[in-house]
Amino acid sequence: MRHDDQVRLLHEIIDRLDAGTNVDAGGIRRNPTSVYVDPDLAAREREVFFRRHPQMIGLSGDLPEPGSFFTVDELAVPILATRDVDGTFVALVNACRHRGAKVVTEERGATRRFSCGFHNWTYDTAGVLVGLPKADHFGDIDLACHGLLRLPAVERDGLLWVHPDPEGVIDVDALLTPGLADEIAHWHFDELEHLDRDSYDVACNWKLAMDTFGETYHFSTLHKNTLFNGFHGNVQAYDTFGRNHRMLLVRRAIDEMRHRPEAEWRIAEATLPAYWLFPNVQLLPTLDGAFLVRAYPHPTEPGRHTSKITFYRRPDREGPIDTSRVDLQRTVAQIFASIIRDEDYAMSESQQLTANSGALTEVVFGRNEPALHHYHNTYREALGLELLPLLDPRLATG
Length: 398
Description:
It is a single chain. By secondary structure, this protein is α+β, with helices and mostly antiparallel strands. It folds into 2 domains: about 5-55 and about 175-385, Naphthalene 1,2-dioxygenase Alpha Subunit, Chain A, domain 1; about 55-155, Rieske Iron-sulfur Protein. About 30% of the residues lie in helices and about 25% in strands. The chain has a 7-stranded antiparallel β-sheet with strand order 13-19-18-17-16-15-14, sandwiched between helices. It has a 5-stranded antiparallel β-sheet with strand order 6-3-4-5-10, with no helix packed on it. A hairpin with a 2-residue loop joins strand 11 (about 155) and strand 12. It is globular. The mean pLDDT is about 95.
């Protein structure tokens, strides 16, 4: 993010802290709880959001060198992401062209060849079929026509994009809008290294997982012994970029930083930026690296999802790697993950139980929760549903 934009946003936050105000969505919205339980809606979401829409699956640091790979199993199509020998990011359908078995079963690693465990058909890092045992017994086939199926793949400014549809198109500028694309570039995500990862199978709808990142109103209650020690609650800066947004969670470090010259102000010191990338990604840059959260719906149960969390570090620029610093970064990452798992997602599971019961037909998004308004009307717009109306809170009776 440009420094002048950082200063502008930090002034906006400081003014709100001094005045005891927050971002104001202008009214409230009522969201039907059926969106978390309806199996027909869940099937439409899986088709529109996760099969026919490009997916941001990681950062460049997930593929640090030629031969690096990782797999994505949470989408309708199993994906093998690799870095070819020439450094190109490649995405492949992780299914052997012989009998359709998964070629790669590991989550990540590095290799020069991928061999299917069924019959040992072997492919290179670009997915080209380079060998099969007893080829003279099998029959005459054209190796060039039996490589792993390629998927559209784009690597830009450190973000890895894949389209699950082989005929799909990835237009990063259209996905992010030019304003957000420029801002993303300024974070230099391409310089980050993979640090650690975690995965949670959670008994809540994937949208409830996204909702937990949609406001800081809960910090003083749910996170009173954890995040609230380092963050102000119920204050933020918020901007939308088409279907995406940027929300700034306010660190208590701003209290000291505000007294320093503006030339020393840094947005990642005073806040934790949270970028929502439609439909299911939270990307949070820090001074030392970044957190990446991806929420994927369960293939058959609306009230269940998988969250994949990946942690990245900014490498040591001079000298050997400081292992004590890496250990500290890993510890901080795991603390962050445990708060999401044990506090946010525990509450989300509670919300899901209520939605499942049908006891409440709707819930309320407050004026101080603009991200929730934006999330759900964005989902609804993408599905062609009627948007949630903005209600004057003085007239929005129960």
